[in-house]
Design a protein that fits this description.
81 residues, alpha+beta, globular
Length: 81
């Protein structure tokens, strides 16, 4: 039954390094929230991320967020149509 919450982490291999990072093996982690597409679901994912990062004492990280409509929603708050 929905929603489904998934998380994963571990090393993955790249075919080639990128930019300044020539390593082909990188550590990657991710979460998936499937079955709801609303602000509360997004909030849950981001809260979980912030709590996890604080617990492990992680240095600054890059977040790649794939949320349908995220860019439109952000832009609408700063430049309404």
């Amino acid at each position: 039954p929905l929603p489904i919450r998934l998380s994963y982490g571990g090393f993955c291999c790249l075919i080639t390094g990128t930019g300044l990072r020539k390593e082909r093996q990188i550590l990657q982690a991710g979460v998936e929230y499937i079955g709801r597409d609303d602000a509360e679901a997004n909030r849950e994912v981001l809260k979980s991320l912030a709590e996890t990062m604080a617990k492990v004492g992680c240095p600054p990280v890059t977040l790649d967020m794939t949320l349908p409509g995220l860019a439109d929603a952000i832009l609408a708050t700063i430049a309404p149509e």
